[in-house]
Specification:
Radius of gyration: 26 Å
Mean pLDDT: 92
Number of helices: 19
Order of helices and strands: HEHEHEHHEHHHEHHEHEHHEHHEHHHEH
Distance between the termini: 72 Å
Largest sheet: 5 strands, parallel
CATH class of the largest domain: Alpha Beta
Low-confidence stretches: none
CATH architecture of the largest domain: 3-Layer(aba) Sandwich
Oligomer: single chain
Strand content: 5-15%
Length: 476
Amino acid sequence: MTKNNEKLSLEVAALTRKTKELVIPLMIVFEGVSASGKTRLSNELLLTLDAKYTNFIPTKSPTSEDLRYQFLQKYWNSLPSKGDINIYFRSWYAYFIEYQENKIKADFFSKYNHLKRQIHDFESMIKDDGYEIIKFYIEISEKKRKDHLKEMKENPLTSWKAQEYESAIDDEVYQKEMLQILKEAPEDEWKVIDYTEKSEALTTMYTHIIERLKHAIKLHKKKDKVVDGAFNQKFKSELLQKSIDKIVKKTYKSMITELQNRLKELQFALYERKIPLILVYEGMDAAGKGGNIKRVREKLDPTGYEVNAISAPTDVELNHHYLWRFAKDMPRSGHIEIFDRSWYGRVLVERIEGFATKEEWKRAYNEINQFEKMWTDEGAIVLKFFLTLDKDEQLKRFKEREQRPEKQWKITDEDWRNREKWDLYIEASHDMIKYTNTDNAPWLVVPADDKKTARIEVLKYIIKKCEEVLWGVKQY
């Protein structure tokens, strides 16, 4: 390494210590055809950075198991903690090219643009949350590249690597797609590095990283974090005042059994068709979410579903993008995931309690819509239920919980504190439904003053929506 590059590498190391201190997460992407110099450049950078908070993530061809999950789920799962650094040796771009070759050939034109939009939305969301993404595309003269491959083939210790290159996606296909991606990207989004001369390539890499890190640090220091729930004291909502006829006890018993049996049949049909089902529950405290979920899953095959009861985020979860902890629990194809509270905490409790800034919770409506569309784009069914409750009925249930020993664990000081902010929760819930009720991931507002009626309504709705997707018919 030249003295100039040694100096630049020390500056990069110093700046990444500063980004660690400011908890700015870094994602550094290396793309390029095989034997273009990606390995050598990324390794030089890896040796420059502090191993305590740097991760090297190589992207491999999608396996059959990978193809059972949403396209970007593995990258959501591997997001760096705030302040940490991920180096991606090939990334979601190479994965996109191989993914389309492996999975979407039969329906190429309808899904190709969906995946490209998902990449754009994914990057926009994490950049808005303070992540810095630095992208390199490595080029090399064809003569130099062939020399590299020849050298590897002739060495018994590295010949396997040359064979691995040859068995991976065709370089011509990869290069064609990547050059199109570069062409469509904003001018300053990618840094193209010519690796024909290693020293010059290192200089270009380090110089670009220094420029980007200085800019990221400057932006971070300028951020004005305003905490404001922006509530209207005179707010009223008719959206949550829906009413339905109460079901009689005798009818409930026969209907609940029939509906549960039908849902069990649909679970197997969803599995056979490899369609994931995602059920999201939100609602007022004591509205009966837990009991409702229990009746939904009562006759399901337990090997095919999971329930996520969401509580306050842990320190590890707070150190990631707020959607990270939910993305990693999304179901694989054919399985059911039930969320007892969810990512909507960002626009509910975090807005009300001031845990999210005004800018964070206001942009979350669009982020959540984009997040859910990533799954529905690829065939998932996303259904969302808001269980609404009369304020007097809530008080009655709170007092009942206090008086019955077997239910006392259900009532906490936090429930009473939340009740004092009833009007704020009504407004936040109204806005949540208004801005995130989409055709691909609709909300059903369920009056829950009568728990039995609410259970029937939810089961009927799940069955109707699943049958529409499976066969295009409605039976309830």
